Amino acid sequence: MSDVILQATDLHRSYAVAEAPVQALRGVSLSVAKGAFIAIMGPSGCGKSTLLQLCGAMDRADSGSLRLHGRDIATLNDTDLTKLRREHIGFVFQFFNLLPTLTVRENIAMPLLLARKPEAQAFAEAERLAERVGIAHRLNHFPAQISGGEAQRAALARAVIHRPGLLIADEPTGSLDSTNGEMVLTLLKELHRDLGIAILLATHDASVAAAAQQIIRMKDGLIISP
Amino acid sequence: MLFSRLILRPLLTQRLRSLVTILGVALGVAVMLGIQLANSASLRGFSSALNAVSGKASLEIACPPAGLDENQIPGLSWLRQWGIATPVIEAEVLAETAHGSEMLKVIGIDALRDPALRDYALLGQEGEAAGTQLLSVLAVPNTLILTHGFAARHGLTQGSSLRLIIGDRALECHVAAVIGEGEGTSASLSAQPLAVMDIAYAQDLLGRTGKIDRLELRLHEGVSLESAEQGLRQRLPSGWTVQRPQRRTEAVEKMLAAFHFNLTMLSGIALVVGLFLIYNTVSVSVMTRRAEIGMLRTLGVTRGQILRLFLGEAVVLAMIGAVLGVPLAKGLAAAAVALTSTTVETLYVAQSAVVPELTVLHWFAGFIIALPLALVAAARPALEAANISPVEAIAEIEPTSSATVESRGRASFWRRLALLVILILGSWCAMQPPLLGLPLWGYASAFCAIVAATLVVPGTLIWTANRLRSVLGKLGIEGRLAASQISASHRRLSVSVAALAVSLALTIAIAVMVGSFRETVILWVDQTLGADLYVRPAALSRSANPPSLSPATIAAMHTHPQVLAVEAHRSMELPFRDRQIRLSTGDFEVMLQHGRMVFKSGGDSAATLRAARTAGELLASESFALRFQVNAGSSIQLNTPNGPHEFRIAAIFYDYSNDRGTLTMDQSLFAKYFGESQPTHMAIYLKPGADAEQVRDEILRSLSGKARLMIFTNASLRAEVLKVFDSTFAITWALEIIAVFVAMAGVAATMLTLVLERQKEMRLLRLAGADAAQVRRTIVIESGLLGLVGQGLGIAVGMLLSLVLIHVINPQSFGWSMQLHVPWLFLAASTLLTLFGTMLAGLYPAWRITRQSLRA
Fold this sequence. Notes:
Oligomer: heterodimer
Largest interface: A-B, 32 and 28 residues
Helix content of chain A: 25-40%
Order of helices and strands of chain A: EEEHEEHEHHHEHEHEE
Number of helices of chain B: 27
Strand order of the largest sheet of chain A: 6-7-8-3-9-10
Shape of chain A: globular
Largest sheet of chain B: 9 strands, mixed
Strand content of chain B: 15-25%
Helix content of chain B: 55-70%
């Protein structure tokens, strides 16, 4: 039991779109063990992103329970949720989502800087990770000055710099060409292997999902397999 | 359809930004129009009183400053061929009643002749009073006829009594009749604070027996004004003046022109800031809708249509602003009248200003002020929108591509070149003489400085953000983020920061100018106020020829055992080259021994005075010298009762008591050319060791019941001078505060827009672990940093502007020179306030953004 870092039970979530509510999740249960690599597949609108948002403590479910690192999300206030995200979760999105006004070095170091780690230490760690993901030569560049593949590698470095227990990746290769997509996927696998981070990854791409240890399929707000 | 969807809908969605912009325009219009209303109110007060009093008179014959000798009137019987002439004497006195005190204009008339010029519809009598009726009403000494307006305000009716304070004398008078509203000129007369007396009693009352101020002439039918004016000028003795009564309004208008012009210019600041807000709003509209614009262009919408859409946005904002601003102007005008009345009355004319009712013309003016300027303000962003290429907009090309960097480099070059040209032009303008008597070049120079400020804003923002990046990094990631955001968004931020910098620069410039002026006045007061006591009548009359101090008062001063010397002065108005100047006389002998005057040429002031006295020469104030372009050694011609006479100016002295220009002559010289005169105020020098306050109390006790005086000790007069000085600039500060307030609101609106546009980044920041407080801090630091940049530029440009104000605009407007004094404390306090204010302005956007959901 102590190996489970995320336990979701019977999650429901609906959104009001115009007058009619849309049921994004209709009773989803999921368990993520320490060091697991799970891919979630399914068509657009099946609820993948909603599930990732709940698992990443970005949103709250209408009903059901979600325990993250042993803590019930429903009982946490905004400050506690922020702290939880800052310490235990990393995020990678389809559109890189780097802050355009910060350099690559500052973008990667941001989680440590937000956690008030000394600047020198944060930047040293950022440089080390940049080296690892192959963008050390781009550290002083701004996001607009680097390629999409480099931006996603930077985003990946930022997502793991604080050694989170869980990495949420929403279509991380969705905006990349095949070469860059493959490179990012390889990096994800390496980071998973070397750092022991659990990964929850949403994708349309079966070849990407194949990298995971477990594949969950979703449809209409429900997990249909396994 | 497009306008409603693309422009109106976002305006409604972005409520705060729209509201701030509209508020900015409304305040701009209100302040500008309000000041115009207040200016016209002060002139209207004077001209309506003048028109009411002058009645049907077409021409006035006068001999300023001493007035006409009534013995000369029989020799003017030839005037009958032109019309009916009637003598008038006039003065301002203080009326005291159970309902309070009020300045009252007393006119002495010839009861038999006057009804030919003015209608007297007396209450309780049928029709207009004829000469004989009027004579019977006014036949008793110390009786007067009051106007209905004044009588009603003070609860007076026929038979009531009131106390008049004339100079330092108090006199009980009785109300013989009240002028009702009636018809014709009586209606306008009845509204004025006016009392009519028989001329003989009025002369006694005013201490000017045998003198009249003017002859008023109603021309016979068929006689043309021009021919009469010409005919009279040819026949009247030289030194006498013939003018239409309205000329007095024109003279007052000229007198107030610089004061009103400067107020108008100041009132324009709020409008300029409001226009910056329009520029900002339309710019943001364009920037946030580039993709939509591109899409519309691909669908076949023309450049012209896009241009009209965004100009239309400015028009909507300006129209709503004007609709709100015009009614607000009336309220502001009333406040401005209250704030300026002391200045106008102290320095220029007694007036009873009433803010006019709003008419269609005022509404029209409101729109005329707002609409064209709003279109000018929106022109650049609207053109930018029209030039957006469909491909660029839809692709959302980032502005950091090499092509853009190149174009930025070019823009930077042109900006630097423009800056250089503007600075050279500004310097050239600052060196030009006044145009049409106004410091128009000076304002052009100030405008150049403002344009220069706006040109350096983008560069300064980037420079500051880059330089402070590492320093701000010490505040944590928030500081680093704030600096980087400023650097990245400098184009959008520039407009708001420019608006803030301009309003702060003007505030700082005004502060430096007022501070310098105040310090100069303090120095001048220290150097010139050497007497122990200063005496003036309790009722401070602004008449051209004010009532003098009574012989009893003069005697009391001379006979007090502690009094060492008495320096008597008389001050009156004198027409000179189409303007009204002040002519003052004094006893140069006493001034030589005890007094102090500071001359521009420096040197021994006693020797200068002695030389002027011996040679029968004048002393001219600095404002006189600058206004009429004369120097020590120049000769000027003054009208005397015996004809024009050339006087030589011995020296120029510093004087900050009025801006109309003062000529001072020894009393013996005045007596020689203008006749004997009695003093209107006195400076008293006490024997060593005498207690000024004790002497003052003793003098007042000895005159108890006989004289109504104001006696200031040296210290209390200094305090009074500074009180008047500070009240003069109250309106200035009020206008400045409005402008800064609008600019701060602009920063808040910009920050809100920017953070809402950066929602994605803010969300990302939160996901990376930033808590709400960290996000708020980032925005507040950024906002404060913008304030600091605005303040830094404000100080730099403000100092430049203050030099223009001190060395160009002020001397050309008022003829006052002053020494630069930097108010360090004010600068420090305003920096802190700006920092605090802009950080406060960032709080709401920060709060808004941290309430957003983290969901994608």
